[in-house]
What does this fold into?
Amino acid sequence: MIGLSDFLIVGAGLFCVGLYIILTKHNAIQVLIGIEMMLNAAILNLVAFGKYDRFYNGGQMFALFAIVLAAATTAVALAIILNVYKKYKTIDPDQIHELKD
Amino acid sequence: MENFLQAIDSLTIRFALAAVLLPLLAFVVNVCLPGKNNKVAGWISTLAILTSAVFSVFVFSKVWNQHQVHQQQLWFTIGETKVYAGILLNNLSVLMLLLVSLIALPVHIYSTAYMKKDESSKRYFAYLSFFCFSMLALVVIDNLILFYIFWELVGFSSYLLIGFWFTRSKAVLANKKAFIMNRIGDIGLLVAIAILFSVYHTFDIDQLFGANALVRSTTFELPGGWQFVAFGGIALAVAAKSAQFPLHTWLPDAMEGPTSVSALIHAATMVAAGVFLLGRVYPVFTEVELTILVIIGAFTAFMAATIALTQNDLKRILAYSTISQLGFMVMAMGIGAYSSSLFHLATHAFFKCLLFLVAGIVIHEMQHVKEEYDLDIDPQNVLYMGGLGKKMPLTFITALIGGIALIGLPLTSGYLSKDGILIQAFEWSEGKPVLYRLIPIGAMLTSWLTAFYVTRLIVKVFFGEFKLAQINPGIKLHISDGGWQYKLPLVFLAACCLFPLFSLNPFLYEHAWLLNGFPKITGLDRVNIYHTIVPAGLNILSLFVIYWAYAVYVMQKALPFPEGGWLFRVSYHEWYIDKIYSKIIIGPVLALSKSARWSDVNIIDGFLHLLQRIGIAFSKVADWTDRYIIDGFLHLIASIVLGIGNFARSFQGGKVQYYLFSMLAIILAIFLFKILI
It folds into this structure.
């Protein structure tokens, strides 16, 4: 029987993998994938906790919104990466340190 | 009347002062003249000395056998002692003043020709004028300190002139030797002056040794020992300046200077300064001390005469003859023949100056021959000369006159002065133990030796055949007496060597006017037979000696003593005195200096090096502490700060992932913190 905690464990694992990818990868697109994984971990939690709201299915609804928003943000992020690549000729976030003062 | 006399006196003083200062002026002008070989220099010096001579004649005529003129001014005051300086003109000083300027004049004229070709003749005349100034000042000054200063200056200018050709190493060695030997004498003089001052509290020569001589007074007496030390100092000074044994060896070497300098300084004037000093301080001597002077003088005279017999260098022969004659003067001072000593000084100055000038001309001409035929000879060596009398008649005749005066034959000035000394020497030894007889006999022997070496010299140079031409038949002599600058001084000096200048009676020295200027002595009265026997015997034997020498050297009959015999060798090597000095004094002094140097290098320097090493070690330790402990501490702080800074900086590295990582770390830390607390 698959219980709530299994979902949470998978979500937490997914989150950790996503976090690890964000912190370690040298490619902005991979970092973006990591972000998506963390987002999906959150959505998984929303869906898992959605079983407590069978009437309105608020969790599932919220998950749908989140997926749409994630798609939108991904599009924006990809555009940013494209522009970054145009400017720096690289998408390694280590090489792009103009954010420092 | 009083005022009139004072006016005359002050005029005399002024003239004397001018006579002294003119050569100094010439020296200053010559130094300022442009160029090295400036023809004007010679004539400036000559003009100055000519004027000096004229003034000296005037001063002489005013002071000689009249009252002495003494003017002085306060020089400085030490405590209560006032030191005066001024000019003292008495018979002795005006005689010297006249003599020096009269001798210097022909030498200056001669030098204008003699040094014409020398490239630094300007320096020569500057030095010569400076010497004349020092010498003239020396004879008129009345203060012992100034006397000492001029005494030094005279020695110094002699040093400069001996080393005039300072590129020749022999000249440099000779002037060093002369200077050092004179220093020994100068120390003696200084000591004597100090002793006299400490007892009498005055430097005034007139007060000390004048008419009411302090040194003769009974109120202040020099303690016996100090009296003797003072005498020793003066004797040392005299021995050094007048080239007496044991300090005579500088004079023959001093002949390295120009011959005109030898004539003026090392024959006629400067070397007479020692005898002049004896004359100045005469009252200070006691009987014993005078006897010591006699022994020094007589021994020197004899020794130098024997050395002069075998020397081959023309100037060296004359130098030894000078030493010998100076020995006569010192001896005469010792036996109490004060006036005869000064008389001999005056006559000797003329004939020795003349002989040196002759030697200068001969050497000059030999140098010409040497250069013309490119020969490798010493132009001063008499063995190469001979027969020059025919070529240079005037030089020959004047040399003959000078030589005869030096031997002391009648009709010359030398006869008057030297025989006077000999007669008085005999009188002095009368009534004394037999040993004292050695002195007059030695002096007579010396006279005959003089006759021999003078004849040898003149014969070798002027008689016979020209030796170089015999060896080398290609040589043709074309030499001559030279211009008027050579002839005039010779004629003048030769005239001064004859009797009329000094005494109208050519046979009796007692009639010489010069002797009347000094304290009367017993020897002037013809009381005993010596006055007849000594001159007669002396001169007859002298004639034999002269003939013998002539026979030996011209007719080649026999040699007086075989060359190679020990007597010859002793004479030829100048009694080995230089060798003895170099063994006994120079050797140990050098050894001492070497050991001093050794201790300097090894002990004193070693100690300093040790200190240095310790210092270096200390500084190295300090350096290490500085570098590693103090700096290290600072570096540690700096690196900690740097580490913290770098650590903090890394959070702001501009890398997105680091930001994220730090956010994660902080959140984790907060959670851990919450869990733990």
User: Anything to note?
Assistant: The mean pLDDT of chain B is 84. Chain B has 24 helices and two strands. Chain B touches chain A through ten residues (CB under 8 Å).
